[in-house]
């Protein structure tokens, strides 16, 4: 792999766009002949080999910033190590291979986020209804859909409804007491979904910005402790019911006693408009097979969904810890869940079904800080002043709090995750045996794509059981080479997506 990327692409701009400069010129008639001649889609579309080019970039078509790779792809016999075939990118259109960026954030790349969202849907649903290698019997396991929220760090503009579900004013007060800064603590407006004031504190100067970014940063640890507390509560309930512990032989030959049940879960972190994360989680109760620890089996009948719900509610109400000290908070910050914890059983015949839950979690898996109006990449000393302001907007003050608190050597991670308002955890995680992995879904899609239209490179063997495909590739750049290429590729991808959506609707109507 090339170590010096500037040598591989001496005059390549990092991203495509109106100011994008073309790559090195190429002789007319060669695979990269359009690069350096004309950036318009018209000239690319008039080329006789335009359909070959569209087929070549199909894997990344629709991606906002595809990754371009140059080098060689070799196919090797697994048994003998013999080279069976070799393809150089110099013989391909544009002399490069296009790969999607695979960014999960919809604000960064809608196409890749859509793929991630579909994978997330399959991952979550397989853990509730089976499929993708998960037994269908999991549909009968006790499972709950739980929402864990953050505590309040100050009053913010929000949407409220009455018991009948009708919208009501945000914070009506007849005789409100003003805050120390003279701001009345009331709001008689009924906010619409697109109201920019949603999530904004009533008084920016009173809001606890330090406490919120520290809570965001500590949320993954709070979740870890919560899963431990839920497990211990379930085990205590199993003992109270007199369920016998099982004997399991370890790899070293020792015999140990294990509980008869275990937890499996999948969760998604959602960034609220006020800039704080909360968790939506599917928590499932499984049994344990002492002879096959990887097996997914039903739990003992004595333990039901009510026991699981009680364990989740107990953990949410009791789990708390104090962070390490900081000069701004010598005693540390107390980290707890908020009061609004919602736990609902998942029932195939009820309102909370596996399909609804999977779609709900998949939707939030592609969102991030754009809910607050802030979108940026990782910040450093050169860019922090563009986004942080202790007297600015709500997101700017959150970023400033991250950067200010992160100046202490024990809190440097706050600066690393300042662009995420302090949150450094994964937006979608699962326990080991809850469901399939993204890697399995990605590999299945790759195999399907190769068998649908032949191998990605036609002169390579297709037997994945006996051959090994090795890519000797180096990074050549990011983004489309020209705005015309981006237009053609994205248009072709949009047409293909529309056809697939129509096909899905027709299949759904037929069934």
Concise structural overview:
The protein is α+β, with helices and mostly antiparallel strands. 31% of the residues lie in helices and 17% in strands. The strands form five sheets. It has a five-stranded antiparallel sheet, with helices on both faces.
Keywords:
single chain, 511 residues, alpha+beta, 2 domains, four-stranded antiparallel beta sheet, 15 strands, 31% helix, 17% strand, disordered N terminus
Descriptive overview:
With 511 residues, this protein is α+β, with helices and mostly antiparallel strands. It folds into 2 domains: 5-106 and 438-510, no CATH class; 135-174 and 198-430, no CATH class. Helix content is 31%, strand content 17%. The protein contains 12 helices and 15 strands. The chain has helices at residues 5-8, 41-45, 50-56, 110-129, 209-240, 305-318, 354-364, 384-387, 394-405, 413-416, 438-452, 483-510; strands at residues 67-77, 83-88, 97-99, 143-148, 160-161, 167-168, 246-249, 255-258, 261-271, 277-287, 320-322, 334-336, 342-345, 428-430, 467-478. Strands 13-4-10-9-14 form a 5-stranded antiparallel sheet, sandwiched between helices. Helix 5 (209-240) runs antiparallel to helix 6 and helix 5 packs across helix 9 (394-405). It is globular and about 75 Å long. The chain starts with a helix and ends with a helix. Residues 1-38 and 455-462 have low confidence and may be disordered.
